[in-house]
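Section 3.1 - Work completed
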Amino acid sequence: MLVNMGIGLIMPITTLYIHNVLHMSLVVAGYTLLLFSGAMALGNLIGGQLFDKWRSKPLMYISAIIIVIALFLLTLYPYWPIYPILLMLYGAGLGILNASINSYLAFLQKYDANIFNNGYWAANIGMGLATFLSGIFFSINIQLVFGSSALLFLLALFIIKSQFASIDALRSSGTENSFHKTLHMHTIGYISLLSLTMIIIWVCYEQWNSNVSVLMTNNGISVKKYSILFTIGTIEIVALQPFIVRLFPETFNGDKLRVILGVLTFALSYLLIINTNDYWRFVLGITFVSIGEILALTAIPSLLNHYANDTNRGTIQAIGSLSGSIGRALGPLLGGFMITSFSFDTTFLSIFIIHLILVVFLLLLRDFKPKY
């Protein structure tokens, strides 16, 4: 929750700060965010690999310290041209910390099958609180945004130091030599399918974060009403997730069913906003998106973890996270190209069909456990 609050305080105001305060173009702001995303993705991969090959808690300490140093310097010197450099440093540390915490959760899942659900729920509470506070803090002083975020990561570091148990001595004593050698070919195929699922989900989800705003304003719906959609979505996730996840058994087949139903729910959200200028249709659409998140995005890490062992959990979780990052990076670009080339309705109908095709492939997932 604290990590996501640290992210949520900074990211919503980044473009606004670069363009309106630092007086850089939107193109420069876009490139800055691209560099941040690239640094975070690289940090994610590094974090996953180091979690598997090194010690877990020191990795979290180092990444959290990198983040706090970057944010502390941003608090003191939030100016160009050091701003994008420090933002990249923050992104790299954030990627490593996210990967190591996700990998830690993956290791603990053998003791608590519901841990990914709880983590996702807490993360949404943190993100919802932070996005609400972000604009308020920014209106006072940008340095308050960076300073508050640094304090949140310091608190997270304190919790890691005082409450996280070391798992290094508990890892399996297997003798696998490399990532590819430890996995059966069927398992690699299933991991690839789940990674592709993450890419497709996020490429399409990003339409809600970017191009849907254009569609709504073109149809006379205000920007304020568009922003309210995400407040509604966050409230729905926090309120509904504890009840929805209890409807499914904590088994492989239960997680598989959740992913399939989640993808179908995502698909319906795009069908709902075809050929409409009614606000209630967009509200219903974001509700379906929220349910899709609860079902699919909490179950995919659990399914990925099912195909892992204690020597590669970090790497496999990092691949899943990286797939989501790739989807988020490509989403606005691919969506903009489709909408410009065809239309909003054709784009959303295509997204609906792609999700249906994806479901057919997800039905092929099997509870295959290789012998190590």
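Second construct:
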Amino acid sequence: MNNGIIILDFGSQYNQLIGRRIREMGVYSEILPFNTPLQTILEKQPKGIILSGGPSSVNAENAHLVEKELYEQGIPVLGICYGMQLTAHLLGGKVHKGVKGEYGKAHLEIVKESSLLKGVTNNSIVWMSHFDEVGQLPPGFELNAQSGVIASISNEDRKIYCVQFHPEVSHTEEGGKMLENFVFGICDAEKNWKLTNYIDKTITEIREKVGDQKVILGLSGGVDSSVAAVLIHRAIGDQLTCIFVDTGLLRKDEGKKVMDNYGEHFHMNIKLVDAKERFLSKLAGVDDPEAKRKI
């Protein structure tokens, strides 16, 4: 689907949350790897691009970067946390390691309102999670807010906006307003996406891709595999076989619940593998959590 918001993934734990916030507004969003070729991004005709946060440093030898031409396409860009540092780094500013890492709540002092911060209350609480920080703005950028560090900058002419904090998390009091300002006020995106449309589209795509072949799916009972199982089952029915492995490390009665819910309620073909002895015998006598994980 085109004309939505593209989120480039730099490894942030909040990527899926950014996408969810935008979809809750009724706007399509899609998460792509940070190194997706620019041409591939442009073919999707995005109304806006969000550069997510991430754990690495822009000054590292193997730093995750984007093509500088991304900023020259006239498409609004929002850099979040690492995305802000990356933008400053690529466009002529300077990023350095902070005196100390900052994690948690901070107060946002608005210095000069931008289209992104329109209507945002001065000194509202934002959520920080970073080690590096912007020390010098790129040419053409203005300081919009600070929180002890440079917290928000923008180049209105080029429609590039950056924040050091995370507007997508609930701890940022007016983060929703900022995202709405970007999606609707800056990107002029349309409310034309519904979950039901996505479900129907996905089922059709699965059916076309699988044809008359069969599919095996590892079902853990968690959210990701469960959603995948239901969508695939709706698309191809009994052509799907789910395999559920009981490791002996599940919660009480969880194995029975998975078999009942997906076998009896959704009428899926599920094969139960009882591997309790195999797992527990190898873990016997081991106390160290990391050693257990590797086993």
